[in-house]
Sequence to fold (256 residues):
Amino acid sequence: MYVQIKSVADGIARISLSNPKMNVLSNQVKRELKDVFSRVSQDSNVRVIVFAAEGPHFCCGADMKEFPERIENKASGKAWDEGHLMLRSILNAPQPTIACIQGNALGGGAELAVAFDFRIFAENAQFGFPEVTRGVFPGNGGLERMIDIAGSGHAMKLMVTGSVIQAAEAKSMGMATEIVPAERLAEAVEELAQRLASLPAAAVQAAKRAVNRYLGSKHDFDAFGRGLFQQVHETDDVREGVNAFFEKRKPVFKHR
Fold:
């Protein structure tokens, strides 16, 4: 198991990810995240969910080893569906959720981060969507969430350029709820979790539902985005991007 429930105590569920050393989002990790969050969110004794990744990085994105098979089998639609199911299991949790973010939160890792209600960044954290440098674009559901949180301008900058930003800039965009020194990250997350757990659960969950209902009413993106995701996976450039990754060289795109 890559994803585990570490503890449930005093109304706080603590979930951890351990897929050394980059905590990449393999298909198996996505399924485990979906299953664990779906199970924990249904526990009436849980008032807050805290998520942390072990090791130096929060999550460095997709497992690139799975890309050749995905491209060959034209399975990008399935990957889109599994990624969205994973993110929805977090977004649909009635309890407030907190992510403890250190090191890199890139690509699918950035999408995972934005699924949480509160995103506490260590000062050394980096955030970004470098997918375009491999010929694709974010396909786990984080694109929609990113626009909701930061606006289309910031989303365009990060997703179209593939830029990676530091924690301070992420906070200026609204992506980071709070930035703390790396050595205080766990403490800051625990303080927030305890505060949320002390508040009346019905009121907290109603407030969260109200915010998410408003955001969710603004777009119906899934079918359109899924089609685009499949299209880019059928280009020569995505094959070049993946090959360049494994060959440790700069990709040479032909724009087809």
In short: The CA atoms of residues 78 and 111 lie 17 Å apart. The chain is about 50% helix and 15% strand. The longest helix spans residues 76-91. The first strand starts at residue 3 and ends at 9.
